[in-house]
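Standup notes
- DV: blocked on the single-chain target, sequence here:
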Amino acid sequence: MKLVNANLGIQISFHESIPTILAIENPMIMTQFLWNMMKQLRGEEGEFILSDEKELKFEKCSDLLLDPFSVELNSKKVLSALYKRLSECGENQLESKSKLLQDYFSLIDQCIVSSGIENLTYDVDITWNEIFKVLGVRFDDHCENLLDKVLSYLKILSDLSEIRLVTFLNFTSFFSKEELEEIVKMAAYLKINVLFLEKLEPTCCFKQEVRYIIDKDQCIIINQSL
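- DV (later): unblocked, structure below
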């Protein structure tokens, strides 16, 4: 798989199970890189081309984590994808759904009669999404530590989306080498490519890695350990 941005002069080739590090030491280039990536993730036009034999939809196949502390296992985006998947499974349970709603409607009618309040009405056409939302269906977000939260997030991405590339911003500042290796191991198992985007070249090294460095003079240096 490849990530190309011709305007920035960046062409990154990913190798299965091998982490890629991109250190951008020039602040202007780093800002431009992130700005354009965030635009494309919102579905806007951008400069990046993500491909694997054929061009992939960037917003569907890529994700960006700006801060490990802000990772949300139950973000609006995640729950939307979850409810969609569950709703598709629910199409085979229409009879059970109908029985469930009949019980709810009967209970509501009893409450209305007991209240003595007149002229009340309610919706009887309820979607699976609304049922899941009311019942608070969500992922268990209890994690022992920050690493477990990131690993859980990667698993959720794999289960619910077509994500093929995750970019981690400055993650080497928050995790030890052993923890970073756990992230790489999980991503490899899930067949997700990882890009560690750093403002400075990290001191830690993986046993196998591909490292791209854009220095302050905008020179591109490539180091590989495969």
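- Follow-up: The radius of gyration is 23 Å.
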